[in-house]
Amino acid sequence: MRERSAAVLEGAQGAPRVAPDAAWFTRSPQEVALGLLDAHVRAKSADGAVTVRLSEVEAYGGADDPGSHAFRGRTARNAAMFGPPGHVYVYFTYGMHWCANLVTGPDGEASAVLLRAGEVVEGVELARTRRPTSRTDRDLASGPARLANALGIRGGHDGADALDPGGAVSLRVREVPAGGVAGGPRTGVSGDGGLARYPWRYRLEGDPTVSRYRAA
DNA sequence: CTCGAGATGGCCT
DNA sequence: GGCCATCTCGAGT
């Protein structure tokens, strides 16, 4: 199945990026996901800071979403998803990789947006040292685990408050949403319902840094 | 550029 | 014990 495209970055070009507050994240994961496109995610550590401009994200619901880690209820692993909005939810997958999400919706309800891909716009040299296998800079954060790795986000960041501008992870979102982005197929939802029922994967169409891994 | 296969460990049933 | 919200590498077009 081929994906359809849509307009890109209309109105957002030149719009300032601002630090979001809790209310900004207290919305549906789909709304937040669209708002996060073209946002800056910054992570600082003792080594320095890396900032990624997001080009691809994916929304996850809670008990109503079979593709969500929270589908079967709260566990120690997914506890951050049930916590306050604007915090980081980090999980370990495939025995190797960390992936970073931002929690959405009211405290106590589980939903989040997975950060799938982006472009490193600050700290490229540090990101290269963390991702020595990247052949080109566009691959530094072109995938969920690649992005988390480039930012230096690991399990220790689980639950971190991304609304604190001075925190280890901080955000600046477009004052005018990038908008006009197609919903692509999701991973993790088998069968024909994947795209039809949960078209919650969003990207900046034509952006060279989007992940090349697309669900079958 | 694309495709296919293997690695690898925590979580959930 | 099976299942992954994946990545890298090698080989083929």
UniProtKB/TrEMBL annotation:
<dbReference type="GO" id="GO:0006284">
    <property type="term" value="P:base-excision repair"/>
</dbReference>
<protein>
    <recommendedName>
        <fullName>Putative 3-methyladenine DNA glycosylase</fullName>
        <ecNumber>3.2.2.-</ecNumber>
    </recommendedName>
</protein>
<dbReference type="Pfam" id="PF02245">
    <property type="entry name" value="Pur_DNA_glyco"/>
</dbReference>
<keyword id="KW-0227">DNA damage</keyword>
<comment type="similarity">
    <text>Belongs to the DNA glycosylase MPG family.</text>
</comment>
<dbReference type="InterPro" id="IPR003180">
    <property type="entry name" value="MPG"/>
</dbReference>
<dbReference type="GO" id="GO:0003905">
    <property type="term" value="F:alkylbase DNA N-glycosylase activity"/>
</dbReference>
<keyword id="KW-0378">Hydrolase</keyword>
<dbReference type="InterPro" id="IPR011034">
    <property type="entry name" value="Formyl_transferase-like_C_sf"/>
</dbReference>
<dbReference type="GO" id="GO:0003677">
    <property type="term" value="F:DNA binding"/>
</dbReference>
<keyword id="KW-0234">DNA repair</keyword>
<dbReference type="InterPro" id="IPR036995">
    <property type="entry name" value="MPG_sf"/>
</dbReference>
